[in-house]
């Protein structure tokens, strides 16, 4: 068999593999969204007015996304806390050491300490970005389900605003409800923390 034939067979094998992988992923998400249907749709049907029920259900969904994301970020922080604390310590420590070395006129020590401090800063920076991103995966899951359920539907604004678009898609309504849910969650969280005794906060 020629080399071109080997390359061609390898290409088709790869294409078939990707096709199989995409079909498996689609089946998984279809089953997952069907299960989410059984849990979420009763909430959407709680109110007799369909539009109000839609916004109520989307608000509940977005609030669940906020809570799940917060717990995911908390779990991720507990997992990476030692690494973040170590990078924070090394960043401050070697930055101070580099300043002392510079004042002492030791350029080699300054470069070495400054390089370690920069590496620790980069590691700490990307760890915190990953930590923040860990709270967003429920948002993409929620949007995926909404596309599955409401992708072909447009909705009227619950409260019409003069000069604004009155027909909204599922993405816009979810984002608005998610922002409101996050504001309400952090407001309730801060209020709860202020009511805790000092010994519980320490």
Q: Any overview of this molecule?
A:
This protein is mostly helical. The protein has a domain at 48-188. 83% of the residues lie in helices and 2% in strands. The chain has helices spanning 3-44, 50-104, 107-133, 137-150, 170-195, 198-201; strands at residues 155-156, 167-168. Strands 1-2 form a two-stranded antiparallel sheet. The protein starts with a helix and ends with a helix. The relative contact order is 0.10. The model is unreliable at 1-9 and 198-202 (pLDDT under 50).
Summary of the model, kept short:
With 202 residues, the chain is an all-alpha fold. It contains six helices and two strands. It has a two-stranded antiparallel sheet.
Structural features:
disordered N terminus; 202 residues; 2 strands; mainly alpha
Note the topology:
Elements (H helix, E strand, L loop, with lengths): L2 H42 L5 H55 L2 H27 L3 H14 L4 E2 L10 E2 L1 H26 L2 H4 L1
Helix pairs in contact: 1-2, 1-4, 2-3, 2-4, 2-5, 4-5
